[in-house]
Amino acid sequence: LGVGDAGGRLLAATRLETAELGGGEAAVDRMVRALRRLCDEQVPDIKPLAVGIGSPGPLDLSRGELGRLANLRGWDGLPIVSLFQAALGLPVYLANDATAAALAEWRWGAGAGTTDMVYVTVSTGVGSGIVSGGRLVEGRDGNAGEIGHVVVDPQGLPCHCGNRGCLETVASGTAIAREAERRRRESPYLAAVPGPLDAARVFDGARAGDAVAAAVIRRATDTLGWAVGLLANLYNPERVVFGGGVAQQGEALLGPVRRAARRFGMPALVGRLDVVGSALGAEAGVRGALAVAVTRHEQDARASGPGNGRRA
Ligand SMILES: [Zn+2]
């Protein structure tokens, strides 16, 4: 949760742990209370004009509701827009979280200056957000860019979305850790790591020359490169920006993804494509929500004519 201005600056922020939030209306209550406290204590002179929400999908944007969220329990069908609106008395704008982060990277981060870019987040899951021709692509319901739930292996592992073998069952941080755990005994490096593995430890193993860790990473980066090739052929972007926890690995992720993308995409499209890391890092989520609020508020102010454009 945060409070920011129209220039994308975050003026105050706090975080609530998802596990402690519960679900449904009680969770919205907690978020509203935390937001009010944040405003009162840290930015008492600010009068907020709009609220932006970045949420995992699927969404139903026309109703302002969440769908059946794969990663969160207790949120199915929640009318999140009307709940926040009723509690705060402000316009509330909802977007998919990866779409929101894409908008923030495009306005204020690593996608600035382009008219065509794709943002790919690799963390617990995999998602993407698309800017095409200088416009955010959201689709009918707000779910465009769900690249993480494209099936890459029909015989693959079950995915929490209900399908099987989705890209995120192969290439997310969770998938990297799970595959490394499955092959742990084959690897002297991984076997010696105390406690459960995470993606960062598997990258460490690959850097240390461990063949199993390298193979696990290779499988993930090949699949992400395939996804970049697909996105490049569909949208012909100038730049693909990688964010999320796993993207903090920098070139250890981006280098292999770039090489794989050149194998899978059409040479004319992937040959001149930039594949770069996020500029906003861990703030991409909250600044994504800010970008949604700022952008939609600007659009509404323009739509209601000159003279109504109050400054945020
Ligand atoms: Zn899935």
State the major sheet: 5 strands, mixed
Overall radius of gyration: 20 Å
**H/E topology pattern:** EEHHEEEHEHEEEHHHHHEHHEH
Q: Point out poorly predicted stretches.
A: none
Secondary structure: helix percent: 40-55%
The total beta strand count reads 11
**Overall pLDDT:** 95
In one word, what is the shape? globular
Work out the strand percent.
Answer: 5-15%
Report the end-to-end length measured between terminal Cα atoms: 17 Å
Total number of helices = 12
Please describe what this structure looks like.
It is globular and about 60 Å long. The protein is α/β, with parallel strands linked by helices. A hairpin with a 2-residue loop joins strand 8 (126-132) and strand 9 (135-137). It has twelve helices and eleven strands. It is 43% helix and 15% strand. The strands form four sheets. A five-stranded mixed sheet has the order 9-8-7-10-11, with helices on both faces. A two-stranded antiparallel sheet has the order 1-2. The structure holds zinc ion. Zinc ion (ZN) is lined by residues 149, 159, 161, 163, 166. Zinc ion is lined by residues 149, 159, 161, 163, 166.
